[in-house]
Task: inverse folding
């Protein structure tokens, strides 16, 4: 799994969906799209829509003056999920984790971040740390017209 | 599957689809009663080819199925099997099963239930042919029914054989005598007409009939006759079925040099492959993307070169720019494919749709050879299907209604393609009842879609009304509009492709819907405009002119800013509002006059950046995004910019 930070939170996602990790870059705003869609970036000639997880999780409301599409800090995790290729804007990427199956606890998706989070991952020597497991497929489903 | 086979699997599917399209085409000809044996041969050849290809791929289920169908077709070719409407239906079903089988083909697949059903049906129909009513494949040169009257004695035993010699037969008498001698080797010739002496002494090519009591099959009989040479045509009627069914029509075939036909069939693909190479579509797309980037870079380089002011550099740059232009043109051309590739599946579709609703439709296709960019062609099939279905469901009347209205019983449906400068026109025309103009007007008035007091709808207004999703979804509208259902789907799709839709209709005369498409989607010339800190591209196809924003041009009428342009008053839109930006404080702004059909308006932007070729790229649009972008492009500095679908800025769009 890939461990990354979204604001102050630790999150994780399945490494299998991750295509690459690129530095953040200015995105072209998509008028009318939800607030948590940052915009379009040019990834070596291909246009990729970037979703801002910080806004998506509500940890970081966009502050006044920071327009959608503006240069954000952090990195972009490019993923393939739900038949789409898109970017997830996060604060920083921490490390790649190997966790046992029993270290993942499912949670009711209704309760967490509107379905974007599907579980808790326990890790560390004594499983003392936790991260939110992101449901990338579900995020894709919510973000795009399927 | 081994790597090698995997590589060929896609090729197999592509070629199979071509064969299937040939099969459907030939079956349709048979159904129309084309009076030759060629369609049967064409189906046979295509099925035979598919059998070979699927066996080579190791798709045994498909190969076996094709083999079964082929055997039946062979009997049909030989005249041992009669062609009936039921059999044609069963063959259509077999073609469908074959198509499904090809799509899901793999080495381990067993025959699908669809294939088993189709085979069962074929066997049922073929087996029961002796008692069903035949529609003969007409085989004589004149198309007249063969008259066996002289020799037809209902309970006489034997096979009736009719032989027609070729028009340029040398020594016809001798040839005929040889044929009869050959037949005598197979059994007893019990009757000959005309008399053998007459046949033998003939010095003109002739037709003669004889009765043969034999155990030999039709194929054997025919080959015996043909061995004599100069035989144009052989018709064989097996005694039993003739007695049982008592029909005068006979199954037979015109075997005009079948060997020659087969040779031709075998050599055709060969000559084709020497001139054409199949290329994976993704390669062409990659080439297109690269040339797109190159075109963008060229623009940037030309700018830089101009600023350096070095004659030698300038010259080299001009040379390179020209070469890039030529390369672009070549790559574009290599992506062009004839619209026939999509049109080819429509005759079958029209047939099925017309049958479903009990309409009689003559379907005509024109301009199959017109070429369109591959990416557009893939997208245009669905809207065309929609228009064709609409024409059949709602446009063309039932045969009874047509006769009552004094029209020919069979409706005419025309699908045509034509080039018009940089555009391609695709038109679906029917001679049906047309759209009920007053009915649509009444409805449009009640729904407030047109100004109250509108007395008459023009074709354009009519189209705008029926292409409103709400309007066409409304109940009763299908009978009202004649052709309205789902037009919004077509309009939306075509707009997304950068095209426009026009409609012409006359009550009782029919409807013509024309789709106008750019020849290619990939690179368009566009105007770049700045709005705040953002840049947007507007395809030039919809841009009429540009002018300065100022008090001279802009006036306030009824509380709204309008543009007064040469006695015309045009509504004004602000790009900032369109893309939901806050109003700006730019002191100096500009206006782009945009048009769609005969509608015009002015679009106010902060700054015009200039014209350039842009490469249109698609992206996965997020939910709720504004529907006014037809795609995006990458600008010279690498930043993405959205392409405004100008057509959608007009009211009623």
Result:
């Amino acid at each position: 799994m890939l461990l990354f930070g979204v604001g102050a939170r630790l999150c994780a996602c399945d490494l299998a969906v991750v295509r690459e990790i690129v530095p953040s870059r200015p995105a072209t705003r998509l008028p009318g799209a939800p607030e948590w869609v940052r915009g379009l970036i040019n990834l070596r000639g291909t246009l990729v829509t970037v979703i801002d997880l910080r806004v998506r999780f509500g940890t970081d409301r966009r502050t006044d003056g920071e327009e959608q599409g503006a240069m954000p800090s952090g990195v972009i995790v490019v993923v393939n999920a739900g038949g789409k290729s898109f970017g997830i804007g996060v604060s920083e990427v921490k490390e790649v984790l190997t966790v046992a199956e029993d270290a993942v606890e499912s949670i009711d998706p209704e309760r967490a971040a509107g379905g974007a989070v599907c579980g808790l991952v326990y890790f560390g020597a004594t499983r003392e740390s936790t991260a939110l497991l992101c449901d990338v497929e579900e995020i894709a489903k919510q973000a795009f017209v399927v | 599957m081994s790597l090698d086979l995997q590589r060929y699997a896609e090729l197999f599917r592509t070629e199979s689809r071509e064969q299937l399209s040939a099969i459907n085409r030939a079956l349709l000809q048979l159904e129309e009663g084309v009076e030759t044996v060629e369609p049967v041969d064409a189906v046979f050849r295509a099925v035979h080819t598919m059998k070979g290809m699927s066996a080579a791929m190791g798709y045994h289920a498909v190969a076996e199925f094709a083999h079964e169908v082929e055997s039946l077709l062979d009997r049909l070719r030989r005249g041992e099997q009669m062609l009936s409407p039921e059999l044609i239906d069963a063959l259509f079903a077999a073609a469908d099963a074959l198509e499904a089988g090809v799509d899901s083909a793999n080495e381990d697949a067993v025959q699908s239930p669809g294939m088993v059903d189709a085979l069962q049906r074929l066997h049922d129909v073929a087996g029961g042919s002796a008692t069903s009513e035949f529609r003969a494949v007409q085989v004589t040169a004149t198309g007249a029914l063969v008259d066996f009257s002289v020799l037809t004695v209902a309970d006489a035993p034997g096979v009736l054989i009719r032989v027609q010699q070729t028009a340029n037969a040398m020594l016809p008498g001798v040839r005929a005598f040889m044929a009869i001698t050959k037949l005598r080797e197979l059994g007893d010739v019990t009757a000959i007409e005309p008399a053998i002496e007459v046949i033998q002494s003939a010095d003109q090519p002739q037709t003669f009939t004889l009765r043969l009591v034999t155990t030999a099959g039709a194929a054997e009989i025919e080959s015996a006759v043909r061995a004599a040479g100069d035989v144009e045509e052989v018709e064989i009627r097996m005694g039993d079925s003739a007695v049982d069914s008592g029909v005068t029509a006979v199954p037979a075939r015109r075997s005009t040099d079948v060997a020659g036909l087969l040779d031709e069939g075998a050599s055709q693909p060969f000559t084709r492959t020497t001139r054409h190479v199949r290329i994976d579509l993704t390669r062409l797309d990659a080439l297109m993307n690269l040339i797109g980037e190159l075109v963008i870079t060229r623009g940037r380089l030309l700018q830089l070169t101009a600023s350096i002011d070095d004659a030698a550099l300038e010259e080299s740059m001009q040379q390179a720019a020209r070469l890039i232009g030529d390369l672009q043109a070549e790559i574009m051309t290599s992506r062009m494919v004839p619209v026939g590739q999509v049109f080819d599946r429509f005759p079958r579709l029209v047939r099925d749709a017309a049958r479903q609703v009990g309409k009689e439709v003559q379907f005509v296709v024109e301009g199959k050879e017109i070429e369109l960019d591959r990416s557009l062609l893939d997208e245009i099939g669905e809207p065309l299907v929609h228009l064709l279905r609409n024409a059949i469901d709602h446009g063309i009347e039932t045969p009874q209604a047509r006769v009552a209205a004094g029209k020919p019983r069979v409706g005419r449906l025309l699908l045509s393609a034509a080039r018009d400068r940089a555009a391609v026109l695709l038109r679906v025309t029917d001679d049906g009842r047309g759209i009920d103009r007053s009915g649509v007007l009444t409805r449009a008035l009640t729904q407030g879609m047109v100004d109250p007091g509108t007395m008459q709808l023009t074709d354009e207004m009519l189209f705008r009304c029926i292409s409103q999703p709400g309007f066409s979804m409304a109940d009763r509208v299908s009978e009202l509009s004649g052709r309205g259902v789902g037009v919004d789907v077509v309009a939306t799709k075509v707009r997304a492709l950068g095209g426009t839709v026009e409609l012409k209709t006359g009550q009782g005369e029919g409807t013509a819907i024309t789709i106008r498409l750019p020849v290619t989607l990939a690179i368009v010339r566009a105007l770049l405009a700045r709005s705040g800190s953002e840049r947007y591209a507007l395809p030039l196809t919809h841009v009429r002119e540009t002018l300065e924003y100022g008090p001279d041009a802009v006036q306030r009428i009824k509380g709204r800013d309008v543009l007064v342009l040469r006695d015309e008053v045009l509504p004004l839109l602000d790009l900032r509002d369109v893309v939901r930006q806050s109003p700006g404080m730019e002191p100096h702004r500009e206006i782009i006059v945009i048009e769609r059909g005969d509608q015009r308006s002015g679009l106010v932007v902060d700054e015009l950046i200039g014209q350039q070729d842009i490469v249109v790229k698609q992206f996965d649009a997020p939910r709720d995004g504004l529907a006014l972008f037809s795609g995006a492009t990458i600008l010279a500095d690498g930043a993405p910019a959205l392409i405004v679908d100008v057509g959608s800025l007009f009211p009623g769009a």
